[in-house]
Design brief:
The protein is α+β, with helices and mostly antiparallel strands. The protein is built from four helices and five strands.
């Protein structure tokens, strides 16, 4: 009779082991993977920061990046007022700096609009 009871509880061992493995898989997919993804996004944001970017620190301070090095950032928090912060304290890049090339491209506009005909060579309408 004891032998029959021992065999009946054998299936329960596999079920409990499967349940424990399932719990660990759930914890991994619900907590660990999203945290790793967020950490990669923050590292990517911190590596792509540049001079002139407007940022927000984790403490809520708004500033503009004036210089960068490997571990810290020099922020201009008001005209003429700068403060040095650790790169890890940067929470969000609020606005990327506009590069000089982009400014030149925008100011150039359509070259056909800027051209003026030479005197005596006025374009004639087809009407």
């Amino acid at each position: 009779m004891l032998y029959a009871e021992a065999q009946g509880s054998g299936g329960s061992g596999y079920t409990s082991l499967l349940f424990i493995v399932g719990i660990f898989a759930l914890i991994y997919f619900m907590m660990i993977r999203p945290q790793q993804r967020r950490r990669r996004e923050v590292q990517n944001m911190q590596s792509t920061m540049g001079v002139g970017d407007e940022i927000i620190t984790v403490g809520g301070l708004y500033g503009t990046i004036r210089s960068l090095d490997d571990e810290s950032v020099l922020l201009e928090i008001a005209p003429g007022v700068t403060a040095r912060y650790a790169k890890a304290a940067i929470g969000k890049v609020n606005q990327k700096a506009v590069s000089d090339d982009a400014v030149e491209d925008e100011s150039a506009g359509d070259p056909a609009e800027d051209e003026t005909p030479a005197p005596g060579n006025t374009p004639k309408s087809l009407d």
